[in-house]
Amino acid sequence: MGEKARVKQKFCGNCGNHNAYNYPDKIFCSRRFSDNKNPIVQTLWCCEEWNPSSQECYCVEEAMKNKSSK
Amino acid sequence: MQRKDFLQEPVKHIKINGKLTVDQLIQQFKNSGSFGAGRLSTACDIYERMARDDECTIFLALAGAVVPAGMRSLIADLIRERLIDVVVSTGANMVHDAIEALGGHHYKGHWLVDDYMLYKYHIYRIYDVFVPEEDFTKLDYRLAEMFGEIAAGNNGKSLSSNEFAWELGKRLNDSNSILRAAYEAKTPIFLPAVRDSEFGFIHWLHASRKNCRNPLVVDAFKDVPEIVNICKRSPKNGMIVIGGGVPRNTVQSAALACKKGMDYAIIITMDRPEPGGLSGSTLTETVSWGKVKSAADKVMIISDAMIVFPIIVASVIERLGEDFKRIPYLKRRDFQAVGGT
To answer: Is pTM, for the whole model, over 0.90?
Structure first.
């Protein structure tokens, strides 16, 4: 788990605070919501509060595919 | 009893043709009178009698994921047609109602699926129904805002779960919504285990915001006098139970608290009595508590409510006919009390 977490790229879509919002491009950040900031952010964005998600998902992979196809 | 008393009514065999209506099929089930078919026809008879009984208040206890599976509009219609007077539901069913009211959907899926793949795609599974996570997320976001509005509007005063449900219904603009229908019809809708659902997580989101000084307070104990009072004021009470659990016991306990017991009871469940859980407990067991009258008109159907309940409703509305109009006893009484005729 620790090994995998270290190799995770620092994107919101790999962060433990993320939930799908407009899959796969936008996510809802519960941390930003509680801080009264706009909680809807790009999956491929990142902030200084980033912490790695403990489980895998396809958000970053699919958001990257969408980005490259545009 | 004598031997001949056991042999009064022969089984009549079911006859089917291509023109049978739902109620005609139910009448064929009644002719057989056997097994699940017999119980289903009895349930239709009991619901019809409840609906025609001017003194009866009809409670619907709702547990199990019937709203995501497709029973949402049916229940909203029953509320609007006044064929249900009080709803007691799990929080989860109303969460799924609100998801659709806010534009989300439930999707036909399959039970044979790679659940870890669903997890990675942010899709949740309810047996063979799929829900995308973003529909929950949008609900969380919108409702956390609504919770703030509701709390601000009530100046720190606690709400019963019924008041809370109506506040939500007032803000959901969807005629197929159960919460909206209950708000418009002023049909009480109790959510006794409200925090055991996404509503609990939404409350945490709302209350943990930095500027939240006045979080919403829903007081489950406030429900008790409200629902007991409804039972107490009604000359007769009937319940239709889908599933069981907390909603079933909330309704039954209200009947017990006012020392009346239910006069009518239909229970649809797949649970068994042997493990001692409430959802599978038989109606005779419920009689022992005084929650259902010994002489009550009652039946328990062991079946999938997604199949059985729509059939019961279809049969009963066919019997009642298009011109049938029902005014719940308590609404009629309250109307007369303020000088109506």
So the answer is: yes
The residues of B annotated as belonging to the active site are 291
Q: Report the residue of chain A nearest B202, measured CA to CA.
A: A30
- Domains annotated for chain B, with CATH where assigned, are 22-28+35-91+158-195+218-336 (3.40.910.10)
* Rg over CA atoms, chain A: 12
B191/B188 Cα distance (integer angstroms): 10
Q: Which of B132, B141, B205 sits opposite A23 (nearest CB)?
A: B132
Q: State how far residue A62 is from chain B, nearest Cα, in angstroms.
A: 10
A56 vs B contacts (CB less than 8 Å): 120
pLDDT of residue B192 exceeding 60:
yes
* ipTM value for the complex: 0.91
Q: How confident is the model at residue B262 (pLDDT cuts 50, 70, 90)?
A: very high
CB pairs under 8 A between A and B: 46
